[in-house]
Automatic annotation (TrEMBL):
<comment type="similarity">
    <text>Belongs to the DprA/Smf family.</text>
</comment>
<dbReference type="InterPro" id="IPR003488">
    <property type="entry name" value="DprA"/>
</dbReference>
<dbReference type="InterPro" id="IPR036388">
    <property type="entry name" value="WH-like_DNA-bd_sf"/>
</dbReference>
<feature type="domain" description="Smf/DprA SLOG">
    <location>
        <begin position="79"/>
        <end position="286"/>
    </location>
</feature>
<dbReference type="InterPro" id="IPR057666">
    <property type="entry name" value="DrpA_SLOG"/>
</dbReference>
<protein>
    <submittedName>
        <fullName>DNA processing protein</fullName>
    </submittedName>
</protein>
<dbReference type="Pfam" id="PF02481">
    <property type="entry name" value="DNA_processg_A"/>
</dbReference>
<dbReference type="GO" id="GO:0009294">
    <property type="term" value="P:DNA-mediated transformation"/>
</dbReference>
Amino acid sequence: MTEKEYWYWLCAMLELGQKKKEAILSFFSSPEAAFKEKIENYSSILILTEKDIERIKISRMNGCVEESYAKLADKGIYFVTIEDGEYPEKLKNIYEPPLGIFYKGKLPEKDRINIAVIGARNCSDYGLETARSFAKELARAGAGVISGMAAGIDGAAHEGALMGEGDTFAVLGCGVDVCYPVENFNLYLKIGNGGGILSEYGPMTQPRAYHFPMRNRIISGLSDGILVVEAREKSGSLITVDYGLEQGKNIYAIPGRPGDVLSDGCNNILKMGAKLCTNPEDILEDYIQICKKITKDDKKNDKLLEANEKIVYACLSRIPKHLNDIAKEADLSIGALASVLFQLEYKNYIKQTRANYYVTDI
């Protein structure tokens, strides 16, 4: 076996957590030494249970490691260890850096600014549009966008970065060959082609609740700044913020209305000193020497629109607005408004976020 295969054996062992892998590495000095050691000597590592030792014994069956490692290439999966030059430098200084990273696509560039865009799974339409818009502009400016590919804000952030024709990276709480959640499968494929999908968990590892808090340290570790778009008072996103604070990252938040449960988390971290953001420039100004200046385009040029189209377009923003409210504000009948909305959608000036709710299209 090669040195890389010994590392793969250690990192890919299912159901063996980070602390136990670190204990094995510390006790035996190298993955190769651990692999070749007599199995009875593992009992000296107090953190390991009898079940753990049995798993290790099975994992060392003759030929299975080489065969499993060879299959990575067939699945388009790459593997780097903490000793490799390609390993992300930003991860080396975090608490409990992953011993190895599995990835599809590519890794974040070493000298590039990366911003994590995170938030609630069960978010509002406004939150989705805000995450897309910010991520799009960050990507256009040359920043990489990092998130966890979860439903809600995470997925919208990846979509926005792809719309901005930039790189986006998804850090998973499962193996990189497992798409979770399954409804994000098309997004999963696009991210693999326009960025990278990363995990410290070996192939075929299924998502587990306890994986996600751990993967959050990687999201924050890879990032230079963390933007929270929407978050409840006790949100998993705030775990990422805590990791970010420990790692010395810049923390940003979108302010929300007092009393809005989806904004409680953001408003609380703003009280604690996070930077308030109302547009992407609030983030980019902190990286002005590295990121490109972007031109604001919250709205498209309306010179080619008809008179009623201009009136209706002026009523809309990134905050979803109901058909009845638009009709009242534009002083149009529902029938006349429906025709105008159809034309604006056809011309890609607006879109529906859900039935009868409209926003400007970014």
